[in-house]
Design brief:
Blueprint (H helix, E strand, L loop, with lengths): L1 H10 L19 H8 L6 H4 L5 H14 L5 H15 L5 E2 L5 H8 L3 H14 L5 H5 L6 H6 L4 E2 L1
Parallel strand pairs: 1-2
Helix pairs in contact: 4-5, 6-7
Bound molecules: heme C (HEC).
Amino acid sequence: MKRTILCVLASAGLLWCADPEASHLPAGKAKDVVVTVCTECHGVANIRRQRLSREEWTSEVSDMVDNGAKANDDQIALILDYLVANFGPDSKLRVNTAPMVEFKAVLSLTAAEAGAIVDYRTAHGDFHDLAALLSVPGVPAAKIEAKKEVLEF
Ligand code: HEC
């Protein structure tokens, strides 16, 4: 309810309406800049599901500037460092904050499998280790074990 009111004000241009998922982005020098610049048009899930190289992020961010993202050169440099550090080719999957689409993309899960993890986490709280994640009903152990080195609890 509160969010609905805030978002109505936001669409009237009176207030900025952030994606509530934005607070779960990994900490970092540029987190606030990313939230301000990159959640104006879409949520952070668009970003979190990616694992891109610096070159690929550079091209993605330049597409976003073409789309209308407003950032100066200093902000773009900060954003790129943040994206490469946290959503680069070898970046971790932060199990306790990742949105559904990040599980799906990074672990090659189906939407139903990824959804089962996120629903379970919402109902029961954080996962403390791999065993807890594997105990979620509907989760494919083999797919998760194959990528266990990218998981961060
Ligand atoms: C002015 C609106 C706007 C802003 C601000 C914006 N984006 Fe986007 N973004 C879009 C649109 C529209 C799409 C979907 C179409 C596309 O891919 O261009 C998109 C899609 C994406 C995708 C998904 C692309 C894919 O292949 O699935 C990523 C990643 C992304 N944005 C990252 C960012 C980042 C990082 C920032 C901040 C630097 C940002 N966006 C800021 C409009 C925006």
